[in-house]
Amino acid sequence: MLQLRFVRFDGLIRWNTFYNTFNKQAQFVRTYSNTLEKSTELDIVESKPTSNITLRDYQQHAIDSCLDSISNGTNRIAVSLATGGGKTVIFSNLIHQINNNSSNSQFFKALILVHRRELALQALRHLKKTLPEKSIQLELGKYICNPQEADIVIASIQSLTRRLDKYSPTIDTIPSRDNFDLIIIDEAHHSVADSYLKILNYLNPLKLIPIIGFSATFERMDKKGLSLNFDKVVYHKGLLEMIDDNWLCDVKYTSVNIDQLQLNSIETNSSTDQDFNVEQLSKIINTPQINQIILKTYKFKQKSHDLKSTLIFATDINHVLELHKLFQNNDFISNYVTGKTPLQLRDSIIQDFKQGKINILINCGIFTEGTDIPNIDSILLCRPTKSRSLLVQMIGRGLRLHTNKDFCHIIDFINTSNVGVISLPLLVGINVDTEYLSNQLDDVTLNELKTIKENYELQKLEQSLQLEKINQLENGRINTFIENTDAFNLTLVDYESLRDFSNNSKSSDNSNLEDEYIVKSSLPWVKFQKNGWGLSLGKTHHLRIYKDLKSKEYELKMYNDLQSFLDERDIYYSTKVKFQARSIKRSTNLIELIQKVSQIIENLSKVKDKYNDSIIIRRNLTKFAQWRFCDASLKQKSFIQYKLIKVFNSKQNKNYNLTIDDIKSYIKELKKGDASNIIFATSLAPIFPITSLLSAIAYKKRYKNKL
């Protein structure tokens, strides 16, 4: 018998020694690899059958849910089960029970689709134990299946895509050895990828075959709908529920806040998983300073809790290598696995980790799915993610029950700024930006996290009750304001709802100053555009204030009429008034402009118009001038009513929930001061003041209906 000695890089070898040694052993490793792969397959195939497997209650419940759904005619179904729940055990027994219930059991044929080698070998191992009488074959890389002989085909999505033409599609219900009677998809959240759709559309064009998908996370970051393949999730048991039921071990969660970990500038992958761009993420995380924090944190936790089997999720291969080098140089027994690690070397490293020969195993994206290592007692999350499913997969690696652990320590390296990063507290329902999480969490159990959540929700409830009381007071203030304010003055308040008005004092962009110095001013300002206000100083002059939203700057301008105003009976129908503008002042401080307005009014009250030798400002400008409370003239009312009804009937404007009678009722009560303001505003902008006035009339109407 050929005896081979395999020199394994088990972490005891130093970084530079590894590189010097590995090249010398390369040919030997390649020779050993072929032998090891064959022996590994042989070991799996020759696994001893296990009879009378006792299923957990929830596992049988999941199987029953699938059988009931299929018997009721729903064939495209999904099972959502947390990592560690035994999905492979479930679908192995599900195949057995469906086969037993099938009327053509002698022809029964099942396909299991996986996307990773580890998942295929894991499924093969369980099926050989559960169904030893069946011919189970792999369609995986160098392993080529014979469709005519196989009862169950376990296929990687990559290999089956290349060899699809040797399989027959199911186009009728006639029993045949050539057709599949059942398709199982492991880690089915991947199943809407084009490669899966190609296979399913080919093998099951008429949707005759039951398709059952299994996954711990039925959600995708790329927003593709899983309904393409599944009509219903027939069973769900999540991670938190599995922990509560003691099917998975509890966690102790520690958050390590790193100020240097600034993730705001990192781009998001737009076309794939909507997660952080890995290359940019690595540049920020893979630094000597942050890696030292990771090392020191591990040292402290390892000593405090006697950690023996730590799995580290790094960002990329460079990060893996840097962390491995750092741990090696500090006398820790570590090793690593990446996508470039040869499969047989990977198996050997994992086996050493399971046997405790390696204390720290570092990876990037390898152990998120299809890995069963129950002895993991701690996980270091050195790879922030926006993906809930990825986080669940990473945490799930350490939650399997094991005699040597009561908890799995989850250590999360984060930054307190919320940029969409998913964390364990968020899975429990706690937002990371709450005051409860303003400091680091240290060894917090799941129940303690739930207590934090309950306390947080209680505080939110108390705040909600207080806010309700405040809102009641604000509603009273709003109602009083509406009741005591005529409709046109309401047009100065540019809000979509009454609630927005009550929140005005909390808003930014100087809206509270605008409320104080324009809306509540004693001068009759009008609003003629979204960010523009006007004040008439008489027939020949007026002022305007404009606000630039980008610069937050206000500008005060004075306008002169370039032609004499027409007499009163014609002014309402004139559309050719021309103004000459002069900028008076610019400032981000509205108060400075208001002070300048007061100076202008005072000066103009002493100046004569050069055209008609009369004082420019001849009468009281304030809202409280006696003439403003007289009834509007018939001509004023007629003009304004014409404008309101014209805009109201326009199909281009929104539904104001008003009637023509509502408009006439408003016109009937119109005073001369408001009429002058409306006419002045429409001379500056013909539409905006009218639409604002219609909205204000509608506000007044709604207020009256509430009383």
Helix and strand layout, with pairings?
Elements: H1 15-45, H2 57-71, E1 76-81, H3 87-101, E2 110-114, H4 117-130, E3 136-139, E4 152-156, H5 157-162, E5 182-186, H6 194-203, E6 211-215, E7 232-237, H7 239-244, E8 250-257, H8 278-285, H9 288-305, E9 310-313, H10 317-329, E10 334-337, H11 343-354, E11 360-363, E12 378-381, H12 388-396, E13 407-414, H13 424-428, E14 444-445, H14 446-484, H15 487-490, H16 498-502, H17 511-519, E15 526-529, E16 532-536, E17 541-548, E18 553-561, H18 568-571, E19 579-587, H19 590-604, H20 634-649, H21 660-668, H22 672-684, H23 688-706
Parallel strand pairs: 1-6, 1-7, 2-4, 2-5, 3-4, 5-6, 8-13, 9-11, 9-12, 10-11, 12-13
Antiparallel strand pairs: 8-14, 15-16, 16-17, 17-18, 18-19
Give your account of this protein's structure.
One of its GO terms (biological process) is mitochondrial DNA metabolic process. The protein is α/β, with parallel strands linked by helices and 707 residues long. The chain folds into 3 domains: 57-242, P-loop containing nucleotide triphosphate hydrolases (Rossmann fold), CATH 3.40.50; 249-454, 3-Layer(aba) Sandwich (Rossmann fold), CATH 3.40.50; 485-706, no CATH class. Helices cover 42% and strands 15% of the residues. It has 23 helices and 19 strands. Strands 3-4-2-5-6-1-7 form a 7-stranded parallel sheet. The protein has a 7-stranded mixed sheet with strand order 10-11-9-12-13-8-14, with helices on both faces. α11 links the parallel β10 (334-337) and β11 (360-363). α3 (87-101) packs across α4 (117-130) and α20 (634-649) packs across α22 (672-684). Mean pLDDT is 81; it is low at 1-42, 495-508 and 564-575.
